[in-house]
Amino acid sequence: MSTETVSTRPFPDQKPGTAGLRKKVVVFQQPGYLENFLQSIVDAAGNYRGATLVAGGDGRYFNDQAIQTLARIAAGNGVERLIIGRSGLLSTPAASHLIRTRRAAGGLLLTASHNPGGPDGDFGIKVNTASGGQASESMMEAVYRHTRSISRYLTAAVGPVDLDRTGESRYGPLTVEIVDPVAEYAALMERLFDFGGIRSLFAGGFTARYDAMHAVTGPYASEILHRRLGLPADWILNAVPLPDFGGGHPDPNPVDAADLMSVMTGDDPPRFGAASDGDGDRNMILGPGMVVSPGDSLAVMTAMATEIPGYRKGLAGVARSMPTSRAVDRVAAALDIPCYETPTGWRFFCNLLDDGRIDLCGEESFGTSSSHVREKDGLWAVLFWLNLIAVTGKSVPEIIQAHWRRFGRNAFSREDYFIADAGIGDDLLARLEASVSTMIGTRCDGRPIRQADVFEYEDPVDGSVSGHQGVRVVFEDDSRIVFRLSGTGTAGATLRIYLERRIEDGPLLCRPAVELNAPLSQAARSIASVGDLTGLSSPTATV
Ligand code: G16
């Protein structure tokens, strides 16, 4: 099989965001667009000649075609083995696990995560390295630089690869191995959690719903929650992966997981609810009529980790992304273990995990995970909570309220403003960054500002520095507002405003976070001149 060198011209818009490259499907469908980006990854990563790579996606529209292109570019660049999930499916955490167990040189995950799918939706690529984690900021910068000057890509006439038959096939020098996407991941979950205890919980009549949102976790939930743990099959909602996610937005939050929310807030709700996103790395945990804030989830997991078989020996440390509520900091202090504060983006946790400094980490954007993989992991979080319920005999609200009474509460909410003109978003943030030095000691809506800065992170493992990671404003009473622009959208700009207020035990303890944070919301609008600069009088979404 001969390799062909194809001349190409750069596309100017291949700058990766928070987690790889995300664009509208029609952008990816341009001739050469995907090939250019894949070739740039190969060239910037060094060399995949003779290597094994893992590939798969969340099943969204264009997944099948992109995998065929990926096989051709892999063969053209001398990759020896491609391990692909059957039907082109692999959840992001399962891919991370496969990369590690099969000692692959890396992985290419075809997903735009929680973004909508379909011909008018989004497509994307996450790039993972041999550790199983997402490529570093510097590597993705190198990929981007390469896309700006690329003049050729290498391809070979492979395929079409039969994605539906498990087993090995040879395409010239390239071996393609189609694997069951669930098996190894399910075995890992069985090693971490007390499956017998969770099975007894369901056998005893414990009611639950899991919403797969027509995305990649449907087959995983069917195998793990239904076949291995006994959850009735019809308690898994939207279990079949669809290229357009059934027209929905596969993001496990109270707004987009509407089917689950209506069950959990209806009459006689189940005792537990959960959802995951497009590629299976996000999670949302619910009790009857209540959503567990991701920051609280991380804090509870940290406080109770030793109840879970896989974490019995305790935690070396924990980490959270900067905008995530500081609830876990309190727990880490009580346990006397380090708590790291990183920029938004899972990749920043990976050095800490690889270095053995942390075992649990999480983000406000409904992501939590541990050292078992190098990605966030939706179903893992669901199993963690089910295991906690099985072992304590307590409900979700009982666990949360007991946690708040012991550690106090960091009431957290996030407001998103969608700004059609991305330049306005950039301008708003630049003005904020420029004004931080003059804010300290002043008052906003009568509240004294104790600290204001632009978050910069120095990685304690490799010393790399990441600047401009969001603006923090902290008040005398320790309330906090964080501003940053989303790095995962494919159009305009989304301003994210993160609000957090500390509540000690007392009558306010269980009030809704949005209500508790209403004064902070006003202060945030005024600090950033949101109305004047964007013309928006209220958030596009509040989560
Ligand atoms: C990605 C990253 C997450 C990050 C999130 C933030 O999530 O993997 O680590 O927290 O983006 O998104 P934004 O920049 O829009 O605030 P995912 O699930 O989309 O891969």
Q: Helix and strand layout, with pairings?
A:
Elements: E1 3-7, E2 21-24, H1 25-28, H2 33-45, E3 52-57, H3 63-76, E4 81-89, H4 92-101, E5 106-110, E6 122-129, H5 137-149, E7 152-156, E8 167-171, E9 174-179, H6 183-192, H7 195-203, E10 208-211, H8 217-228, E11 236-237, H9 258-264, E12 272-276, E13 283-287, E14 290-292, H10 294-304, E15 318-321, H11 327-335, E16 339-342, H12 347-354, E17 360-363, E18 367-370, H13 378-392, H14 396-407, E19 409-419, H15 422-439, E20 443-444, E21 447-454, E22 457-458, E23 465-466, E24 471-475, E25 480-485, E26 493-503, H16 513-516, H17 518-527, H18 530-534, E27 541-542
Parallel strand pairs: 3-4, 3-5, 4-9, 10-11, 10-12, 15-16, 15-17
Antiparallel strand pairs: 1-7, 2-6, 5-6, 8-9, 12-13, 13-14, 17-18, 19-26, 19-27, 20-21, 21-24, 22-23, 24-25, 25-26
Helix pairs in contact: 2-3, 2-5, 7-13, 10-11
1,6-di-O-phosphono-alpha-D-glucopyranose is lined by residues 18-19, 113-114, 277, 281-282, 321, 344-346, 363, 365, 367, 486-488, 496.
